[in-house]
């Protein structure tokens, strides 16, 4: 019986030790569980923050992309308009050059006519009065044309 008592006592001690170990192990597991829940909550918070930042960055990049697309379209329109205006200016300069050549040729023809009239005037005194009037009339037309031509030549040289 004493043996049974000792055995009972030994088993009770062993049970107490096992209960203490169990309680310690349970406390450790509860502490681990609390720590893991805190880590999980922190990780979820970091994930939410990162998701918010990613969403904000995506929105900002989308807005920037839209703005840049609009600016690029506007720049393309301005480039097309400037190209068109440049071509119109080139055409106008070419037309003015051709027109000035025509004016120069006309002035040369008028000068030749005036010279011929001076020659005829000196050769034929009878027609002198008529020729003088014609000469004066033509001279009056040639002088403004000459001034206009010199202005056009200066403008053309400046445009180049």
Task: Count the domains.
Answer: 1
Q: What is the tally of beta strands?
A: 0
Helicity, as a percent range: over 70%
> What is Rg?
54 Å
Q: Alpha-carbon distance between the termini?
A: 131 Å
Counting DSSP H or I runs of 4 or more residues, the number of helices is 2
Tell me about the largest β-sheet.
Answer: none
Structural class: mainly alpha
User: Overall mean pLDDT score?
Assistant: 83
Low-confidence runs (pLDDT<50, min 5 residues)?
none
| Residue share in β-strands | under 5%
Write the H/E string, N to C: HH
Backbone shape: rod-shaped
Please name the defining characteristics of this protein.
160 residues
Polypeptide structure, described:
96% of the residues lie in helices and 0% in strands. It has two helices and no strands. Helix 1 runs antiparallel to helix 2 (128-159). The longest helix has 122 residues, at 2-123. The model has no long low-confidence stretch (mean pLDDT 83).
Report a brief summary of the structure.
96% of the residues lie in helices and 0% in strands. With 160 residues, the chain is mainly α.
Layout: helices, strands, pairs:
Blueprint: H1 2-123, H2 128-159
Helix pairs in contact: 1-2
């Amino acid at each position: 019986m004493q043996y049974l008592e000792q055995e009972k006592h030994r088993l009770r001690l062993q049970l107490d030790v096992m209960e203490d170990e169990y309680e310690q192990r349970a406390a450790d597991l509860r502490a681990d569980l609390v720590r893991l829940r805190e880590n999980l909550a922190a990780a979820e918070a970091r994930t939410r923050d990162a998701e918010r930042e990613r969403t904000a960055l995506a929105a900002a990049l989308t807005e920037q992309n839209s703005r840049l697309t609009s600016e690029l379209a506007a720049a393309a329109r301005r480039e097309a308009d400037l190209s068109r205006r440049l071509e119109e200016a080139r055409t106008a300069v070419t037309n003015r050059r051709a027109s000035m050549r025509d004016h120069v040729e006309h002035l040369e023809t008028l000068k030749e006519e005036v010279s011929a009239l001076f020659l005829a005037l000196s050769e034929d005194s009878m027609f002198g009065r008529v020729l003088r009037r014609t000469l004066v009339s033509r001279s009056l037309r040639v002088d403004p044309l000459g001034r206009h031509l010199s202005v056009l030549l200066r403008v053309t040289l400046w445009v180049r």
